[in-house]
Amino acid sequence: MPEETTREPEPGPVTLTRAERVVPSWNDPLAAAVTRPLGGPLGEHAAVGRHWFWSPQRVGLLLATLALMLCWFGKGSCIQQYQDSSGATQLDWRAGRPFVAMCYSDIVPLYGAERLDRPGTFPYYTSWKESSQTAENNTRYMEYPVFTGLFQWANAKLAAGWLNVARSGWLPGALPVAIYFDITAFFLSAAWLVTVWATGRTVKRRPWDMVLVAVSPLVLVHAFTNFDAIATAFTATGLLAWARKRPLLAGLLLGLGATAKLYPLFLLGVLFVLCLRAGKLTPFWKTAGAAVVTWLAVNAPFILTATRGWWEFFRMSTLRPMDPDSLYNVFSYISGWAGFDGVLQKNQTPTYLNITVAVLFLTCCAGIAYLALAAPRRPRVGQLAFLVVAAFLLTNKVWSPQYSLWLVPLAVLAIPRWRLLLGWMLIDAVVWVPRMFYYLGVDHKGLPEGWFLGTVVVRDLAVVGLCVLVVREIYLPAADLVRMDGDDDPAGGFLDGARDVIIPNAVRRRRRKAVAA
């Protein structure tokens, strides 16, 4: 019998096989329906992961790029120009254009409101007076966390440099605010692409779930409404670093995210309770320590040398009344009770409102911590992260429409059910329409407040429904799509597949019964 010879495998890229990669067109009705015009669901003998270029990551990034382009065209109406009667070029915001065209973006008015259009200014050091405030509160500074404030300032300087080159004829010119908006939109697009990429890398065997982040209706509406894509990018990459068991890098990224928005810090609480249950506190302390050091390294120079300007964000957050999008405003409208609204009459801190917000959020956090420690199986990082951020938005006195972007990547990690998530995202995005016409005013053919608040209630009920489903899947892991596919916690890092040190009493009793039987 001839001696057998072995052949070396041909070199090539290492890819996931069909058995390792979850195919959405096989197990999600919406994905299967979408594929029908393109030939139907993936065939049983189809080659997966063999294409030389079009991986799920690249397809997702392409779709995200197209979505961001559509968002820019939607916002582009608000940077149109016209010449007034004197021949001067002005920004065309006549006749309520930002609300009628639904193109409003905070980026445009903040260019002047934060004094970014003036040479020689610097965030947290430059102050100005506002006559609309009381004498003791009329001195104002940059009203954003440090990273976001410096991001705005850097883009303003880039816009000024662009205009200097444009005057030489090498670049097209426009109003400074239009150039500033386009430069800001470019960097925010890059941040959202990073969010999409990091989410796709974190979900491991479900790479196509990143499409939900890429083409979310919320991205079409709110990618350039404010600067929140910066925080989502840091948060998504921080979770990816944690999933890859790099706690110091995870802490660095979450700390940077906290210098742009507050919510990335909430994820440290999520990691703490899960690491406590698994007895993996050492990597948590590394992550938390790196996050704190990073936050201090960015903020300390301003705390020490521009304390009053640095504190402006926290001062204005305390003074801010309830937002039109908040449940407190809905309650006030329905009940007619103005107890939360004292700041509007007296220009004082809304103490009762702030206390209510803090108590409700801390109560929700305590409930989520109990859920993490008492559930029959340790919850996944994505599940608890979504619950905490959703609880913050639901109980907070401010839910600016772009805040919903925070939930998009976390929802994909927590509950990758395409129809449910796209349904919620569509409802949330549609709230923008009545909001714009509510701000237009009834006198200018806008909508009355009740119509707007009705859509807010529907949006909040949709988020609550997702939270209920996440809690159900935590208590019934067999219904969790991620765990049905054979994974434990793709974003868990050190927690993925780890044994529990803290075992709930219900689990102990179940084990005793099994042994006794």
UniProtKB/TrEMBL annotation:
Signal peptide: none annotated. It comes from the Bacteria. The keyword Cell membrane applies. The chain crosses the membrane at residues 177-198, 210-243, 249-276, 288-306, 351-375, 381-399, 420-439. It is a multi-pass membrane protein. GO terms for molecular function: hexosyltransferase activity. Keywords: Cell membrane, Membrane, Transferase, Transmembrane, Transmembrane helix. It is found in: Cell membrane. The keyword Transmembrane applies. One of its GO terms (cellular component) is plasma membrane. Belongs to the glycosyltransferase 87 family. This is DUF2029 domain-containing protein. It comes from Amycolatopsis vastitatis.
